[in-house]
Write a structure and sequence with these properties.
This protein has seven helices and two strands. It is mainly α. The chain has one domain. The protein has a two-stranded antiparallel ribbon. A hairpin with a 4-residue loop joins strand 1 and strand 2. Bound molecules: zinc ion.
């Protein structure tokens, strides 16, 4: 019965757990993305120099998901997916800050994190209208 088997820490089907732990496909954390969404950083990320190592030469980037896409079409397609919309929802709540933890710890009054409106970044060619393209989010 005994053997050199590795103790399983998760079930084979628990991909959502595995993805959280594995670092291979790790992208930015929400607070880092929040930093990217500030105007100065956003324009820098949306207009990157051509980079051969990145998918699509680094020219098609989704700010909210911190992902590169190979073409404008792939990027637009991504805007319509659940992953992206879920991410927009997650980013609506302001990231956790030191000030917030101090307020929660009794320094000053606790203010709930603000909700804000998150919108898909504009796409350069001007034909993309997220409101019109919004088909299937229930
Ligand atoms: Zn996205």
């Amino acid at each position: 019965m005994a053997g050199p088997q590795k103790k399983k820490r998760y079930h084979k089907g628990d991909t959502h757990l595995r993805k959280k732990w594995k670092t291979k496909r790790r992208t930015k954390d929400l607070d880092q993305i929040d930093e990217d969404l500030k105007e100065k950083n956003a324009s820098k990320l949306l207009h990157q120099e051509i980079d051969d190592d990145k998918p699509g030469l680094g020219q098609h980037y989704c700010l909210h998901c911190a992902r590169y896409f190979i073409s404008v079409d792939a990027l637009k397609g991504h805007f319509r997916t659940k992953v992206h919309k879920r991410r927009l929802k997650a980013l609506e709540i302001e990231p956790y800050t030191v000030e917030e933890s101090e307020r929660a710890g009794g320094l000053g009054t606790y203010i709930h994190p603000k909700k804000r409106k998150m919108e898909t970044q504009p796409v350069d060619d001007g034909t993309f209208d997220p409101d019109k393209e919004d088909v299937d989010m229930k």
